[in-house]
Design a protein that fits this description.
The complex is a heterotrimer. Chain A has a domain of 77 residues. Chain A contains 25 helices and two strands. Chain A has a two-stranded antiparallel sheet. In chain A, helix 1 packs antiparallel against helix 4, helix 3 runs antiparallel to helix 4 and helix 8 packs antiparallel against helix 11. The N and C termini of chain A lie far apart (63 Å). Chain B is mainly alpha-helical. Chain B has a two-stranded antiparallel sheet with strand order 1-2. In chain B, helix 4 packs antiparallel against helix 11, helix 11 runs parallel beside helix 13 and helix 19 crosses helix 20. Chain B is globular. The two termini of chain B are 34 Å apart. By secondary structure, chain C is an all-alpha fold. Helix content of chain C is 72%, strand content 0%. Chain C is built from six helices and no strands. In chain C, helix 1 runs antiparallel to helix 2. The termini of chain C are far apart. Classes of the chains: A mainly alpha, B mainly alpha, C mainly alpha. Chains A and C meet through helix 25 of A and helix 4 of C.
Amino acid sequence: MIPYAPLIVLFPLVGFLLIALAGWKYRSERLIGIVGSGVVGLSFALAVGVLLEMAALPSDARSWSVDLFPWIDTFTGTAGSFGISVGYQFDQLSILMTLIVTGVGFLIHVYSIGYMHGDEGYWRFFAYLNLFIFMMLNLVLANNFLLMFLGWEGVGLCSYLLIGFWYQKTFTGDAGKKAFIVNRIGDFGFLLGMLLIFKTFGTLEFSAVMSGASVMTAGTSVAFWIGMLLFIGATGKSAQIPLFVWLPDAMAGPTPVSALIHAATMVTAGVYMVARCAPLYALSPDALLVVAVIGGVTAVFAATIGLVQNDIKKVLAYSTVSQLGYMFLAMGVAAFSAGIFHVMTHAFFKALLFLGSGAVIHGMHEEQDIQKMGGLKKYMPVTWATFLIGAIAIAGIPPFAGFFSKDEILWYAFSSDLGSPALWLLGALGALMTAFYMFRLVYLTFYGKERFDHHHVHPHEAPKTMTIPLMVLAFLSIVGGFLGVPPALGGGHIIEHWLAPVFAPAQRTLMLSAHASHTAEYILMAVSVLIAVGGIYLARRWYLEHLDVPDSMAAKFAGLYRLLWNKYYVDEAYDAAVVKPIQRLSDAFLWKVFDMKIIDGAVNGSGWLAQTAAQWLRKVQNGVAQSYAVIFVGGILVVVSALLFF
Amino acid sequence: MLTYTDFLLAMPLFSLTVTVLLIIATEAARVGRARFSQFLAITGLLVTSLLAGLNLRESGVAFQGMIATDAASSYLTILLSLAGIVTALVARPYFEHRDAHRGEFYILLLFAIIGMVLMASANDLITLFLGIELMSFCLYVLAGFERTKDKQNESALKYFLLGAFASAFLLYGIALIYGSVGSTNLDAIARAYAGISNQPLFLLGTAMLIVGLGFKVAAVPFHMWAPDVYEGAPTVVTGFMATAGKSAAFAALAIVMIRTFDIGGSTTADVLALLAAASMVLGNVVAIAQTNLKRMLAYSSVAHAGYLLAGVAAGTAEGFAGVFLYLTAYTVTTLGAFAVIGWHERTNDEGTSLDDYVGLSQHQPVIAAVMALYMFSLTGIPPFAGFIGKYYVFMAAVRADLTWLAIVGVLTSAVSAFYYLRVIVMMYFRERDGEHIPLPRIPVMIALGITAALVIVVGVLPSTVLQLFMPAM
Amino acid sequence: MDLYTISFYMFAVLLLGSAIVVVFSRNIVRAAFALMITLLSIAAFYVLMMADFVGIVQLLLYVGGILVLILFGVMLTNRQISVDIREGAIQTIPAVIVTSTIGGILAGAIWSTAWPMREAARSVAATAPVIGEMFLTTYLLPFEVASVLLLVALVGAALIARRERKS
């Protein structure tokens, strides 16, 4: 299998091309669905094959890189030139990510066959999804920063296309533009990071950069800034403070998209990137601290907003932001494999939750407000059961997947040399709220009184193509955690051992001391389980038994409630602090003042457009051309004096 | 005196001249209609690019050192011919629609290309100047091609007045350089450069050259004409002068500054870097405020001049290659974008406003997709051509210790996303309420196909393109 | 001070004076005539530099051709004769500042440069044969391009002047 490994990337591209070029003509849903899902399935199968063969190799031979063709050549050929190949790196980390992307991706493709049934843009949707998988695979498999950037931009592009897929329905251009612009700010950080890496190491190949990093002295400001700039990129893609605003809006897209892109894969790209650059981050504990703090704060911050939202997908969106915060918290305390482990389990249960919410929305005739649901348990038993499993998993009840990964992160946040009780507290607080809002969602949706209009809404279970992926994901959400049972519970922690060689250089640079005792670990574990149970209990009390409590609480803390309901007014603040000033700068100052007023005080509007034949000559005579000429000569003056006097 | 080699190296120029004379003759004899001229022009340009292709691996000076043919100049000849072909393809539907289709268009188009090829292969400041003038004369007239339209007249006259002004400075610069070197031959100047590069007279000459060429490429602060002229001129002409005109001027700038002067690290490079930064910032920021697509692309072209100047300011072979690669990316992308604008424009000059593009994806999905492709490329999103150009130019700048310039470039291109993507938002995420515009005619479709394909090819296989003009690899 | 130097300064004064009149005159005919004196003075400079051929060409083309054309244009559009041609917002103060600064810098640079002098410049020899030969050898290409340039000017002029077809 190994020689064919690059085909993993190629299959989805072929699928995309087939569907994009022929799909609009042969609008057979069956064929498009089979091709679209099939190519991703093929990639997944091949990735499994590669994984098995890789596992059979000795652990130091499990990493190799394949250059397909030179992308950018430089003719100088000297060391430090910026030539780059299109090449893929296969190692324990990238193959794991590939499995997540193709595996979860495959299930979501299958789910979409049912979900998108009858949609006018069926072929377009599958074409975009395939393109997305292709780009995502480029992102995780790239052996250099530039190809990773291609994937990075590509997934953003697909996300953009898919968010706006149903523009007729809910979407306004502004939200899509926000997604893209916020991501561009992140990309700007990424690009500057690349520039700085190139400046420092003279190359953009991962292997060369990382080996260069392992011999650098730690703690330099260059290392800090590389870490920071790349992290800005990560905050954009992975929706962390301060660039998280786009993700909740992105929920306007079709639900499978929310599941695939905005929960399971694309948004974890930032986490993956930090993990991939672990040797770089290891050079700067300060940068790691920033990552940890931002992650921890985001985990709590987003969870508080999630407490009061009523749109089922919005709750899940803020939950995603919060969970991504945990992953960055893990990265920040150098628990890289714990973070990747959480990426994996989160992909399972969050995809499950989103797809479950999609089934609910589907069954409720496009209703998304959980206040208008209730008692759906008896109408859609499969959805209910699987959704409940997902909720238990994310709340962190053992032995479901979420428990192991989240608990490991909390443990490292507490015990690592880079961690602290404060970071642990942030994580624990987030965990409490997560359990609370997830079960608030569950109770309001599936339990209690039926608050919907029986005359118009007839809830029904989703078709097989939708429920089967739910069941598979539910199964994974239950057992996925067993790959990472910590030694304290007598497990072997397969994931950590598997990934250990990848993060070994970073760990060597950091020289962290050994962990604290098992006793402390047991205590923390018990605390986190208690927290989860407490959150669930609270949700049950408020939303199932004493329904008047939430309202009275909202009335009692009206100010706080309004603050949370309005998402801390972050959007408004951005608009006032960033968007408006830029527009004003451009509109009022640079264009009107600099380009029009100074030069041509007499004219208003867009350029001076002459009305009659006589006027144009007059216009040319009376000032505009002269004014241009004066600026021109001023420019000459600048150039001449700069050349002569500096 | 003249040898066989002279003619061989100048073959593309001859084929262009022969073609244009043929067109003049048929026009004068009224043998064919304008369509026949279009056919002749496209054929002639195809032959020219073929001949230039044969010259890709030749190099040498011809006509007593007046022109120098090498891979870069031959490559640029191909690029210019391509721009000419695309322009000729879209010109017929555009002008026929306006009842202004004339054979003279193709005559002036080809004459302009002759001037541009001379600029790209100039080995003497005299040839360079004549090339620039030849190009500019044609563009002045083309900018006001539809004589009855005030807007075009205004555009042409303003371009002419300021252009003549700029040419005077250019010529003055050439005179000053001649005064300090004693020759206008680029080889001779290159040999003398090390000894005189700090002489005030020579620096003045250099400054004037920068000013004159800076005007042609529309770099800040010599960009004032561009928005007015780009907006006023017929859209096909705008597309042509924004791409081919800029390419030729940048080729000349790169040849003079990098090959002849070897400015790497000097004050001249710093001045160019300053102009580059100013162009990037002003072009991109002001473009945000534009509501007319032609005017927006005019400011965007100012910004692109800034990115290109960064490559020139690097002053290295990599910067040189970066400029040519960027020109390729920019030319194919912008030509396509203007082809779409020209198709969308109504006879009464309406339809170029951003609002007119609302919901285009609903009734012309293919065209909207192609336009989106161009916008992505201009924004610099991989794997499209625009990204590769930016990557190469910025990396060359970093390697030439102009990291700050690369940072400004990255920052401003992040800003540029704002206005390029607005076009996409308009086309894709809004409901259509405007009129229905029929699908473009076949020639326009061909032009869009060629440019769109190249946007992807250049983005995915830039090495192949690079090897065409950098044979030393 | 020999005759050569005297005539140089005389023509220099003439040139500058008439150029000032061109710029500042409010009467277009007067400006045109002043321009003629300017162009004549330039021709005189060429002659002083022993560039007899260029001097003659200057006389023929600019004075005999272009200026006469301008005058014809002015006379034929007779209503313009008395029009005050300087109108509209000309940004006088910034223009004066930037141009005079540049002028100062240029003068400084020219002053400080050690110009290479050619002794042979004062020998009297016919330049026309040399120029003619050069046009057909070294400068063949520029010569041809210049003629192409003229052709373009013709085409452009024809296009602009042509009567619009009625559709």
